[in-house]
Design goal:
heterodimer, A: 311 residues, ABC transporter involved in vitamin B12 uptake, BtuC, B: alpha/beta, Rossmann fold, 6-stranded parallel β-sheet, 11 helices
Chain lengths: 311, 374
Amino acid sequence: MELVTSFLAAAIVAGTPLLFATLGEIITERAGNLNLGVEGMMLMGAVIGFQMGLVTGSPIMALLAAMLAGALGASIFAVLTISLRANQVVSGLALTIFGTGFSGFVGKELVGQVAPDSIKMFFKPFSLPGLGNIPFLGKVFFNQDLFVYLGYLTAVILGIYLYKTRKGLNLRAVGENPGAADAASININLYKYVHVLLGGALCGLGGAYLSLVYVPAWQENITAGRGWIAVALVIFATWNPYKALFGSYLFGGLDIIGFRIQGTDIQVSQYFIDMLPYLVTIIVLVMVSLRKSKRNAPPRGLGVPYFREER
Amino acid sequence: MKKTISLIFVLLLVMAILVTGCSKPEPKQEVPKEEPKEGAKTPEKKVKVGFIYVGPIGDGGWTYAHNEGRKYIEEKLGVETIFKESVPENQESEKVLNDMIDQGANVIFTTSFGFMDYTEKVAKQHPDVIFLHCSGYKKLDNMSNYFGRMYEPRYLSGIVAGLKTKSDTIGYVAAYEIPEVIRGINAFTLGVRSVNPDAVVKVKWTHTWYDPAKEKEAAKALLAEGADVIAQHQDTPGPQQAAEEKGVWSIGYNTDMKEMAPKAYMTAPIWNWGPYYEKQVKAVMDGTWKSESYWGSMKDGVVELAPLTDVAPPEAKEAVEKAKADIIAGKQKIFVGPLKDQTGAVKVADGVVMTDEELLSMDWFVEGVEGKIK
């Protein structure tokens, strides 16, 4: 039992960077923009957040810098795809390549340095008063660091925003049918810009979790493919922030389960386990398309540049 | 829309393959054989020394240790050196080698197993340039291979861990299932059990050399299973930090990792390439250099145990000093019978010393290790 709780608690931690990146990509795609630059934005957030944390020693500044860096990366994508209407897939891939190179370049001097104690203390796991004492669940969910709680909060806020507010409805309309949304006098470009940038900021936070809390140190290519898992997770979660919460922790668990079953009698190859998140995504995709439920379908305007003149 | 989705999937698959495919190949070793042959002639000349590294010099581990060796010869011999970091272990390394030769390098150290075949190829094309390859087994007239008997200081670090553990469970974050790593785990376990016969060493494989997040995760799994000392074989401080966060203790690797985890770190088996590099480059300058297969020991100073910190148990210092003196004097062999394997069967009979050949192809765990070699 002890082992199970410790595994589940570790799965939450491993899933947190995925959660932020997935939420970021969900609101980006809800605005009809497919940004495949998640990996790049995460890396930019990771390196800039770490740099800022090292220089100032302030966790708040580090988080703000990481969000800014992610948003900056997303702004490149936004200008290319929203204003210039370039191909979204190509622009996103370019952003990934740019972000990888940029972070390697900026982070060269940071390799081998450790996050300052002030940041380590700030993100030390603590028990939430009341909730932390619930048997089992308290240990798993409410004895975590501040960043993890921020993750829960962000997912819930985004869920409420998307499904319960007028602006969220507008956003969904922009993603589904920009023409109709435009006719309803919604400012398409403004919505797209705001949400693409916000998405980038969340991806940056996801990266910063790795460099500031999870490892905590900067290392080249620290994300190690997590950005791509996040892209898969968006589909897994069927563009729903609440499901993203579940999906991220599930994928986080898949990420670390290999070490936990090593040495037991269960014989599974590590490489097979590394493959599981992608396999699960494909299965979910197949199930979703078989059921043909409108609720689970991707935003219809996803990946299509919007030209008012071509309506 | 369907098109876009399928496009995403193709891309995801491609990235998945790229991401998982880029791992460091597993080093293998063969027995260093001394063969007599005509030495490569190098008249006294100005040397320019090139270094090719597999990681960043700031990794605080493997590459950092090699770079310290580079700085050492720069200072001691006043030679000019050039280096290139994070060179991938593929065709690219050949390009880097040729580029270094164009820049006038005439002695080149290639410091990772994966550079072996490319070093060999370039060495054949440039008989006037001298190559030294770390951790491989290929040798030409102008190409040496060299490595160190890391298992000796690992045994010593095992003594420290064995004295420190309270739960009698020690976690070992292991890299790949290759003889070098297995040998290290066995020597470590023998060290642990020489002072604490009840202790067990639990092993988890990460299949990485450099992935702090993953290695930390493996250490956390070991801690959850009751380990209170963590040792490692990768080039990052991830496992050290896992131990620090849990408030238990750790044994590092490659270099002194004290700064990474000041409250956990006790000591580390470390590399000290400087003196060997100096000797080799000096020999080149004097024209006496000959290619060889070198497996340096604690006696040569290539490998050693980092100073014990205050965290280490007080009685460890004496025990380590004694064992160290005996090993260096040749009085104590580490892999000497009776050695039992995990099932308890006697694998090496009483008094028999394992040969280098056996050590270099070791593929079984000694008694006291909990883990599987697939």
